[in-house]
Amino acid sequence: MNVSVVGSGYVGLVTAACFAEKGHKITCVDIDPQKIDKINNKIPPIYEEGLAEILESVVPHNLNATDDLLEAINSSQATFICVGTPCAADGQIDLTHIKKVSEQIGKILADKKNYHVVVVKSTVIPGTTQDHVIPLLESASGKTAGKDFGVVMNPEFLREGKAIIDFKKPDRVVIGSIDDESADLVEKLYYHFKAPVLRVDLKTAEMIKYTANSLLATKVSFINEVGNVCKKIGVNVYDVAQGIGLDHRISPHFLSAGPGFGGSCFPKDVSALIYKAGEVGVQPILLNAVLEVNRNQPEKVLELIEKQHEIKDSKIAVLGLAFKAGTDDVRQSPSIPIIEGLLDLGAVIQAHDFEALDATKKIFKDKITYHSEIKDALAGAELALILTEWPQYKKMDFTPMKEKKIFDTRYIINQDLLPEDVEYEGLCW
Ligand code: UGA
User: Fold this and answer.
1) Is 258 a pocket residue for ligand 1 (Cβ < 6 Å)?
2) pLDDT of residue 107
3) What are phi and psi of 352, to 5 degrees?
4) Which of 31, 177, 303, 332 would bridge 183 by S-S if both were Cys, CB 3.0 to 4.6 A apart?
5) 234 within 8 A of 208, measured Cβ to Cβ
6) Is the shortest distance between the CB of 48 and ligand 1 below 6 Å?
7) 3-state DSSP assignment of residue 3
8) Looking at residue 93, what DSSP letter applies?
9) What is the pLDDT of residue 410?
């Protein structure tokens, strides 16, 4: 099938690459000439495990990038909208990009003879496709949705860093639609992925996405809160998580306590659902608490470190800046408020990350030092603070440290293998 994908961020490009690998002919459309150039030269413009290999094999015969939306739509049967939906300060999602693209697509559909399906993949608050995307497509095209062209809402459940694996082995494919013809076409596109398909209406598809992210975020805040209690009473929350995770009704996933969730999705999506709840007169007590626990978690890290360590003028190696391992993304990363807090208390920060140094430099500039080698971040440090669960930290050599104190917010180090002179302390255990 011929498909165009608007927006070459991690969702758009992963969608494009995985469909292309299954033999579909994909055109990526983006406004950024650098991104287009990179994709056409088989270079991923973002870091995503496995993406480079797929681009290598599918560009140019099954995948191309362009800024020509007209040509891309005219030569395809379906267009996926994968542009960003950032969050405004009040939690409401910003639909500027979605609206602009919907209007542009509508104008092109005005003259297109063949049936075309517009698929919203960007995460949008329930009601958006019906109340914003469809009216814009209809007014710009002069045609009727569900009759002259199709509209589908097909949410993504891709984790950053594991997006290729998640796309290739989905737990389910959710297809929200207003007509069977377009839902059939999208279901056919996913045929090779052999996942259960759930067909619903547009609003339900949008709500499924927000509910999934909000529940996962709730699990993280829940275990963090329990972990804070465990710390006070001398219990290891990771043993507790294992104990409850074996119950199939609970599952072991998303029960790793830590410094709080971050990234471009959980904080934004929970906030957007809270905003929507407020709009329709529901007070979202639990969702507000999920964010509150999360906002407080970096503070817990600072409190515990302050209790056992003289922070002023002390050299602290901060190990891990990305909001989780496997990504270069520091958006809403707990490392940011933690570093800010440590700087306010007078610490000297020597930061390390495997992928996120460049992104962090944009935030802290010359207030901290940046190291691509763990040993350089540890050199002369009096405390090593592990914030991201990069597996490489499991086998660190602490020799370069002045004082061998480790504070591990992710509980990734095997204590049995630690040398005797290393002091090891954690957040929730
Ligand atoms: C999340 C969802 O997992 C995806 O299904 C969804 O498609 C995506 O958002 C999105 O909306 O686009 P992602 O933000 O990439 O994916 O990250 P996750 O792997 O879900 O982790 C989110 C945060 O929770 C991270 O900060 C992570 O460190 C934290 N976390 C996760 C924990 O602290 N403990 C856990 O047990 C699991």
Assistant:
1) yes
2) 98
3) -130, 145
4) 177
5) no
6) no
7) strand
8) B
9) 97
Q: What share of the chain is helix, strand, coil (3-state, %, to 5)?
A: 45, 15, 40
What would the mean pLDDT of 98-126 be, rounded to a whole number? 97
- Is the CB–ligand 1 distance for residue 222 below 6 Å? no
Atom of ligand 1 nearest to the CA of 161: 15
The model carries a pTM of 0.95
User: Would the pLDDT of 125 be above 90?
Assistant: yes
Q: Which atom belonging to ligand 1 lies closest to the Cα atom of 11?
A: 12
Per-residue pLDDT, averaged over 349-365, amounts to 97
- String of DSSP letters for 163-204: HHHHHHS-S-EEEEESSHHHHHHHHHHTGGG---EEEE-HHH
What integer is the mean pLDDT of 303-321?
A: 96
Give me the residue label for tokens 């993406």.
51
- Ligand 1 centroid to 323 CA: how many Å? 9
| Position 61 pLDDT exceeds 90 | yes
Tell whether the torsion through CA atoms of 349, 352, 358 and 363 is positive or negative: negative
Delineate the domains of the chain, giving CATH numbers in brackets.
2-209 (3.40.50.720), 236-429 (3.40.50.720)
Is the CB of residue 31 less than 8 Å from the CB of residue 67? yes
Average pLDDT on 44-71 reads 96
